[in-house]
Amino acid sequence: MKHILSPISLLILVSSFQVQAADVMSEKLSLIKLPPGFEIQLFAENVPNARQLAVGDQGTVFAGSRKAGVVYAVVDHDGDLFAEGIYVIDQDLNMPSGVEFRFGSLYVGAVDRVLRYDDIESSLDSPPEPDVVTYDFPDKTHHGWKYLRFGPDSLLYVPVGAPCNICAEPGYAQIRRMMADGSGMEVYAQGVRNSVGLAFHPGRKSLWFTDNGRDLMGDDMPGDELNVAPQAGLDFGYPYCHQGDTPDPEFGKGKSCTEFTPPALTLGAHVAALGLTFYTGEMFPQPYRNQLFIAQHGSWNRSEKSGYNILLVKIDDEGNVTGSEVFASGWLQGEENWGRPNDVLQMPDGSLLVSDDQAGVIYRIVYTGQ
Predict the structure, then answer these.
(1) Which pLDDT score, from 0 to 100, does residue 171 have?
(2) What is the structure's pLDDT at 220?
């Protein structure tokens, strides 16, 4: 005999599941370690595979994805600092990891193309068909997902990852830039294996970017890189040299690492340093101003896992790295990870959002001083 739940019973059952899910997330958030005075909160849930973040003029948070093939819009309708509105802007795209917002339009990077959704914040319920900004990127998916960032020169910067672990294939391992309409594309930097994070120094306007080091050289080699490109034309060494001082065992023969631009900071091996942002807000204390936050996604090919945290990189007024320390940790418990930080985004109020493509949520980090 079949038992059919009444509407009231079904509502109670759904509410019970929601409470249980909230309790589980609350327990997980209690594992996150932050400096004194900082707190982490859940900003949005049910954002599967959330990757790069961008914020619109009206406060809409946009999130790309990679495996999910979806672009999301996340909205806090009632102003309670929790985004209950989750909209699908587009779906069935090819790894639409990268998102950027400019002049009312949402830009999305999907492997071989960049798309633009105009006047997007006024049409979240019925998003427009996108305009294609350009099809002029390679279509290989290995390291093919994109990260987008407009620079202070109003040009759109887009990495083109190497289609392999280690190889020398023309047209890849680059950071390109172009006009907002897709014209004038040029190579800005080369020798960049796989960058999934770009940021511009607020004072010096130089490009800073993460780069993931190659695999299959052991647990501790080579380190991921934090690089600085103050002008076009620099070569950061891939596939010939890694972390500024280590020739590749295959491609490094006959090359010297002194031929290439060294990293500003060598990060841990396999930590998968991804999205990054300079903090310019007013909420965090003064020592955090103009400092760099990096989401370290975490290793997949190391005998003991590393990464799974938010790194704080300290930079002086001259633009030199003076040190680094873990700012937020706890997504890795022993050798079990329950989350993977992917991108960091400063909000207009000075809080910091963090996307997590494993947990499918977005966090909000605030400073209360308590």
Answers:
(1) 98
(2) 97
